[in-house]
Write a structure and sequence with these properties.
With 216 residues, this protein is mostly beta strands. The protein contains 4 helices and 14 strands. The model has no long low-confidence stretch (mean pLDDT 95). Pfam families: DUF6304.
Length: 216
């Protein structure tokens, strides 16, 4: 199982604390003020075991039902980028900032690559990566599920992160998709892959295919 670790800072009205996020690419797990949390994305932080939460511990956070609200996260998120012309690989840590208000979520991503600064703000990872992909102006691609030729989203929408489907087992059929109707005829897949995951079968997304298309 692939696992990554991200260092970051959690901030709310009670102060700021360092955190380390463990990502097994199905769940994010971490501790805040010695309390264990688990989540599938960054806008739905819930207690790993609510039965162990004391009243004093609960009062250290702001809640909406069982999930945290009114917090900020700053995370050193690793990214891998491919330069299309010569296939050079760049690996580095980007700055991901997440803010959860009462009901509204926002995210900001920025990094420097080859002396050029890139930044984006949106409510989900697809929007963040779409904005930066346009800024690349055809020079680079993300080396992850978002940047893979065989990854796509559900026609019924998606979560903030982790809603990509993998079509590598039906490559020829997927590459023939030109519209939503074609897409709906493909064999069903689970839409549960994180945009930032990358497997050994990654193929650079360099064709206008699928439901989501490709940003040139």
């Amino acid at each position: 199982m692939k696992i990554e670790y991200y260092d970051g800072i959690y901030t709310d009205i009670f102060g700021s604390v360092p955190i380390r996020i463990i990502n097994n690419f199905k769940f994010l797990s971490f501790k805040i003020r010695n309390i264990s949390f688990i989540a599938t994305d960054f806008d739905d932080l819930t207690i790993h075991n609510t039965s162990t939460l004391t009243q004093d511990q609960a009062q250290q956070f702001t809640w909406a039902k069982d999930a945290l609200i009114k917090y900020k996260l700053q995370i050193n998120l690793p990214l891998t980028i491919i330069e299309i012309e010569n296939q050079q690989i760049f690996q580095f840590r980007s700055n991901l900032q997440i803010e959860m208000h009462q009901t509204v979520y926002s995210a900001h991503l920025d990094f420097e690559l080859a002396g050029q600064c890139y930044s984006a703000s949106h409510s989900d990872f697809e929007g963040l990566f779409d904005q930066i992909q346009r800024q690349f102006q055809g020079k680079y691609r993300f080396k992850n599920c978002y940047g893979c030729l065989y990854a796509d989203y559900s026609v019924y929408g998606q979560a903030q992160m982790g809603s990509m489907g993998c079509f590598k087992k039906q490559k020829s059929n997927y590459l023939a998709v030109k519209n939503k109707d074609d897409y709906m005829q493909l064999d069903a897949v689970d839409f549960c892959n994180q945009e930032i995951y990358c497997c050994e079968d990654y193929t650079i997304r360099d064709q206008q295919v699928g439901y989501r298309g490709t940003i040139d």
